[in-house]
Amino acid sequence: MSPAPAEAGATRAALRDPVLAPAVLLLWAAVALFVLYPITRLLLLAFWDGGPTLGAVRELVSSWQHRRALWNSLLLAALVGTTGTALGFAFALLAVRANLPRWVGGALDTIILLPLISPPFTAAIALIFALGPKGLISYHIFGIAALNIYGLGGTWLSETLTYFPIAYLTLKGVLANIDPNLEDSGFSLGARRWRVFRTVTVPLAAPGLANSFLLLSAASLADFATPLILGGTRFPVLPTQAFLQITGLYDMRGGAALSFLLLVPALAVFVAQRWWTERRSVVTVTGKAGAATAVKILSPGAVGLLGLVCAMTVLLVLTFYLLIVAASLVRALGADNSLSAAHYAHVFGGGLKAIRDTLVIAAVCMPVGGLFAVVLGFVVARTSFPGRRALEFAAMINYALPGTIVGIGYLVAFNDPPLALTGTAFILVVCYVFRYSLAGTRATTALLAQIDPSIEEASASLGARRDVTFRRVVLPLIRPALLAGMTVLFIRAMTAISATIFLVSLSWSLVTVRILEGITNLELGQASAFSVLVILLVYAAVLLASLVMRRLNAGSLGQAGSLLGG
Amino acid sequence: MSRTLMIVACLLLAAPAWAADPLNVYTAWPESLSQPIFKAYTAKTGVPINFIRLSTGELVARATAEKNNPRADLIWGAPGDGFAAAKAAGIIEPYKSANAEKVPAELKDPEGYYTAVAKNTLIFMSNAKLLKEKGLKPPTSWSDLLDPAYKGQIQTADARTSGTALTRILSVYYAFGKDEDKAFDYQKKLHANVQVYTKSGGGCTIPTAMGQAMVCIAHMPDAMEAKKKGYDTLTTFPREGVAAVIEAVALIKGAKNREAATKFIDWTFTKDMQDLLDKNEVFMLPTLPGGSINPAVQALMKEAKLLPVDLEWVGKNRKRLVDRWINEVIKD
Predict the structure, then answer these.
(1) What ipTM was assigned to the predicted interfaces of this complex?
(2) Residue A300: inside a domain, yes or no?
(3) pTM score
């Protein structure tokens, strides 16, 4: 804690700064217009009826389904957080501590990324065909005919498989930063493997484990596609209930109120996650951790067990995606399994406009959102501007809210002049930028935490203005964060749907909307072909980003990937 | 900085791409069914049609949010209950096309807010191979579906999202002589055999066709679509009858292209358009008397007992029926 007078002095200096002050004002204006304003319009819709009213809330609380949905959402988030973290930890241990050949690690990274970058619905649908009644794995391999995957079990499994890569990528970094020499010291003191693991490795990884648990819980709380398909009527959760309230019961007020109910746990998880990451001491990389001997925390038996778990998971994930590829290549999966290029012909024929539109929007989102993210991250991490915490918090709201609500909020707020933005590509760009820039902002603050402010001070003392310092000193240093932020924005622009389904227009369409259409129109082949294309495009982007990152000497693929969840 | 970029991006991207004055349509029909009809109109009149396909609920939510500055001119091709909600939300306005005079009164809103484009109904679709394995005959009565042999083997639609589910609730209601308690008692018993309620009405057809379930209760066009794709399925009607529901059209209040929109509605009720339902194998029935019905549909419809539906009653009671379904049927 710095003493109060110094803080006040810094604040005064910040307010007088000719570059910082307008930059902060612009950030606030943008966040106020594109985050706070639509949310306020929705709040009014939910809680204002000629005067303040809690009618909608009373109705919600009295419904068994909504009470159960709240409980289910919390339960699911905790379960997915736990199993996802456990599975991710198993993968991370294997990757970092089992002395695997390099190519195995590379292959693991590539396959594990699949669920994270898939368009919505595809994974859930593939799960049904693999593990559902008469599924490829459940029935044709294990002969189980009556497996019911609709409900808690299926949703839990599907979300675990979708989100564990976040845990893997987070924990891999954490484990890699734990010096194996510390474990070795334990061995020299005569401890057995299990004891060293319990008393050295796990405690050192604990902040990472907690962080991963919270990231996964947040992802599960916000997930809409999986429970919509796999939850059935027996397992209602809040995001789907909000959606159903609006689109099924034509009750916009109830839907808005339900989302605000979801906002409470979602924000709590966010705050907890921030608290965890900030109190963790920043590991300063001073040189390569120098394990002279081979890492030996894992016994051959343990490696075998972990390998088995991981191999089964990888096989399962691969089966899902092979099913999608198969569905895109045959006439009608299950009925007419003859090879056909018809679905791809459709994608590159009638679907071309959606692909073009999506790529244009993603291309515009990347620089705009990337810059917004790093400027915001810089202001939050490096200045003492009053209200910077509030700004950071406000900028996070659109990410924490379920997409349906953000979409409807935008529709309500930006349909009428003078802010008539609906029907343009601009509204889609804005929606992505303010919903998915968080990853870039976090990467920036994390990176800045590792860079000594004295570098900027040196620039300032040599007479450079703030903007010059930012452009010539800070920006080059945080390039990896900018790149990570832009990559995440690209991935999201290619795969997100829940908010944008309300914002696509007659002149601007999106690939994900075509995928959803394919699924609702029973054109599984077309939906699969579109999905395969999206996955390939995203892979190409991630590969490119990781190559550039390596050039920048700033970690690997994992860094961009680990931000996806946050 | 980022703001300036965004404004530039906005100016670049927002430039209107259309030269002619197109008609903007919201539809709930799949592209495969709606687009050929819109294309036929454009070929005939030169008026281009832009359309977005949305589920009925999304469509109403979207049009409601856009109420003060409507972005579409027409809602064309969506279940009748959506129009009842649209009427209540004040987003559509009455238009009585002279061409629609011959459409029977029970297929129109009495105040002219919406008119049926086509009649639609429910059908049972079964997986032929699975039935054969179990030695079962395809169900031909609502009570057949309560057979324990079907336990966990029926897929059908969720009443909170799907118009198909409402058609099911109405069908049972009318088939049981408008005895609502009896009808809900039946739904409860049916619930014991249901494997999953799908979000969209057609959502059960492909899974059933692929063998995940034995029977799916769906709207006729969805069931026939799966058959057209080559899946080995059987279609049957319950002998007690099925509700004849409507797919309708309405003019959006304050539509920017009102005149063009009314012309399109007028064309909807010509023999030209009504015959397209048959030619394009939409598997719905024309609402204009004398519209052609293809032999396959005629043969199918011979077995069907269509029960007329009181649109006004449905409009008033829809929410209550769905609430009852949530609170009595699916509550474990």
Answers:
(1) 0.77
(2) no
(3) 0.81
